[in-house]
Amino acid sequence: MPPLNTRWDIFCTVVDNYGDIGVTWRLARQLVSEQAMTVRLWVDDLRAFERLCPEIDISLDQQWQQGVEVRHWPAEWQEVEAADVVIAAFACQLPSVYMDAMAAREKPPLWMNLDYLSAEDWVVGCHGLPSVKYKSVQKYFFFPGFQPGTGGLLRESGLLERRQQFQQDPEAQRQFLHGLGIDPAPGAQLISLFAYENAGLASWLDVLAADSTPTHLLVPEGRILGDVARWLGVESLAIGATHVRQALTVQVLPFVRQDQYDQLLWCCDFNAVRGEDSFVRAQWAGRPMLWHIYQQDEDIHLDKLDAFLALYTKRLSPAAAEAMNGLWRAWSAGRPIGDHWLEARKHWPELQENARAWCLEQALQADLATALVQFYRNWI
């Protein structure tokens, strides 16, 4: 086994939104708290990081947060000693000065590209393979994933036990929601909505408003707010704003830290999420969900969507699987989803059970941090 306090460097460029920094921040903390590693997290955009960790001082080039050394990734790189394990998150390009520092070590470091999450079959075959080489330093592909033979998903120790305890405690949920200013009506279904802009939203809100069951829609601050405002007929939506239309109550929430967002997902009956970090957290919530996958050129994101759906719906009856496929594909294409939502609601108990079973199945795999450490142990 590698000695305790093995030094790790994780590099993160914030490309868009908060998925990249969300994943790397969770990973860095887990490597420190559960694996006893020494971690430097290099981030090029501390302002984006501040949304997830309000304690961050964006004026500092070096600081410690929750056991992690947070370093600002400067435009002009200064020479530093390379770590024992180097992770380039999501194919970011390391500074040339740092790459030279890796090559200058007496024993080259383990260099890994932590890739984007995908359920596509080819991921299993590529996971752990060598990639490019820089002088004496070999880089390896490391793929998170949903199937054996991949790197698994980020999951902190005891996460599902904490979630189950919370979901079985109505008073704990009430107090948490109250702390965010949320007071749902008795019998209302709770839905969280965190998504990119989507032209298909209006049809869903129309159906929710006309439903016989009241819905309390919780919308964390983000890019979908413009579409919600247009449906409500208002210019903009401020944090804390609440609007009621027929059976639908819409409430805007502030951007919350990651542990609070987890609890928000645990409280809700249904979660609409986006990107990668919130996508994984919604799966650990064990509740029916809807994923707004990040759009890529030439619609290659739809291949990723279909690959995940094939796994996620494999236990469902043909009718329920068809309903979920229709809902997810329409949502990611920006098409109206109102009718798809009504169809999915016909299979609600089955969808609830599927979400729980999927969560438990994924928990059988090693979590991502453990898999990374094991890969290092095997490598040395």
TrEMBL record:
Catalytic activity: dTDP-beta-L-rhamnose + L-arginyl-[protein] = N(omega)-(alpha-L-rhamnosyl)-L-arginyl-[protein] + dTDP + H(+)
GO molecular function: translation elongation factor activity
Taxonomy, superkingdom: Bacteria
One Pfam entry name: EarP
Coiled-coil region: none
Keyword terms: Elongation factor, Glycosyltransferase, Protein biosynthesis, Transferase
Magnesium recorded as keyword: no
Function: Protein-arginine rhamnosyltransferase that catalyzes the transfer of a single rhamnose to elongation factor P (EF-P) on 'Lys-32', a modification required for EF-P-dependent rescue of polyproline stalled ribosomes.
UniProt family annotation: Belongs to the glycosyltransferase 104 family.
This protein's name: Protein-arginine rhamnosyltransferase
Lineage summary: Bacteria, Pseudomonadati, Pseudomonadota, Gammaproteobacteria, Pseudomonadales
